Amino acid sequence: MKGFKKFISRPVVIVLLLVMAVGLLLGTGVEGTRAVLNQESSPFHANVEVASIDVALLENGSQIANNGYNGGNPSGELKLSEIVDGKAKLGYKYPEQIAVQNTGSIPQFVRVTILKYWKEKGSNKRIDLDPSYIVLEETKDGWQKDANASTSEREVFYYLPVLEPGQTTPALSSTLSISPEVLNEKTEENYTYDDLEFHLEAKVDAIQNHHAPDAIKSVWGISVSGDENHISLN
Question: In a designed cystine with 155, which of 84, 114, 126, 199 is the match (CB 3.0 to 4.6 A)?
């Protein structure tokens, strides 16, 4: 099963297998040349096209990250472009539409992992503060949150229909806001969350739709039911 996981998830394995196959063909030609000394072998030319899993993460229609066989940047810190001068209004719902596009050549299933956390300016994140005050409103338009894998800091979403090449999913979220309940967190002198930075990060990855339940179990480690066109979380 470990070997199967590597085969599914790492494109270099497929490339190496194809190179080995071409090497065997060339080896056969060399042996034939030795057996018939008066015959020269013709040059061998071949183009190899490897089907690719490539995926892009979109925020409000703009690509912010990509991942696939050709490398990329699978994680992206969301821009939250409507926040002016780095100051967020408590309770205001900022447009935040996160979606995924299949930029590869084969159908695939995709998942998005969202990270939410607080930081002091120019410092490390504050693990003692509550990420649930950072509220990402879900659309549930074809997307399902994995409740078993999600926490207040991390939310994991799966798009249940297969995503065909060139297609873009509906947005998994619609708005982002900071709950006014942060005002309840204070000491005698100041508010706990005053002048802190909130951060929202997203990561996208994808898997082939061939033998989807087995591939997803092997690579992502979760059990699903369904077929090559649609999955359901068990």
Answer: 114
Give the pLDDT confidence of 139-169 residue by residue, as tens digits: 999 999 999 999 999 999 999 999 999 999 9
Other beta carbons within 10 Å of 5: 15
> 106 exposed, middle or buried (CB, 10 Å; 0-12, 13-18, 19+)?
middle
What are the strands, taking DSSP E only, across 51-107? 54-59, 62-68, 75-77, 94-95, 98-102
Q: In terms of DSSP H, where are the helices of the chain?
A: 2-9, 11-35, 212-220
User: What is d(CA 96, CA 73) in angstroms, rounded to the nearest whole number?
Assistant: 20
State the pLDDT confidence band at 41, using cuts at 50, 70 and 90.
Answer: very low
pTM: 0.76
Residue listed under structure tokens 């879900």: 138
Residues 190-199: pLDDT tens digits? 999 998 988 8
Task: Sort strands 134-138 and 173-178 into parallel, antiparallel or unpaired.
Answer: antiparallel
